[in-house]
Amino acid sequence: MNKIALLTIALAALSGCKGGTDVIAYSADVDATKGTALFACKDSTTGSCIFRFDDPGAQPRTLTVTKGEAATVTSVGAGSTYCATTGATGAACKGQSLRAGKQAIRHEKRGSL
User: Fold this and answer.
1) What is the rounded distance in angstroms from the CA atom of residue 39 to the CA atom of residue 28?
2) What is the pTM of this model?
3) What is the chain's pLDDT, residue by residue, as a tens digit (113 residues)?
4) Side-by-side strand order, sheet with 62-66
5) In contact, 49 and 23? CB cutoff 8 Å
6) Which of 28, 34, 35, 67 is the most exposed place for a label (fewest CB within 10 A)?
7) By the 8 A CB rule, do 27 and 67 touch?
8) Which of 81, 89, 85 is nearest to 105 (CA)?
């Protein structure tokens, strides 16, 4: 069998394996003077980005944003902590702090085969 045929078979076998890649890409635009943050979901394995906020005053405490859309959370500011996840089984939600201004974030985690 030639090398191209073997490579094609190997790639086909890997595509059917458990695991895969969990991808989330979003932007956060924090207006510290107003206490608001605009979260835009740019990409997600599940089609939505889920944001959870530790600040007890945050409204809402959990924000779900569909891929391609944006939503605002209030009563937060620079230094408020949150985590972002795709909501997929086994997806991590790692805490991080908001910074004033706009930032773009992308995480990609490959699952086990």
Assistant:
1) 5
2) 0.77
3) 554 443 444 444 444 444 578 999 999 999 999 999 999 999 999 999 999 999 889 999 999 999 999 999 999 988 999 999 999 988 888 899 999 999 999 988 775 43
4) 62-66, 48-53, 81-85, 95-97
5) no
6) 34
7) no
8) 85
Count Cβ neighbours within 10 Å for each residue of 3-34 and write b for 16 or more, e otherwise: eeeeeeeeeeeeeeeeeeebbbbbebbbbbee
Q: Which helix (H) or strand (E) holds 50?
A: strand 48-53
The tokens describing 15, both together, are: 């595509």
User: Is 51:82 a contact under the CB 8 Å cutoff?
Assistant: yes
What is the C-alpha separation between 113 and 98, in angstroms, rounded?
A: 34
Q: Which two tokens stand for residue 72?
A: 């605002």
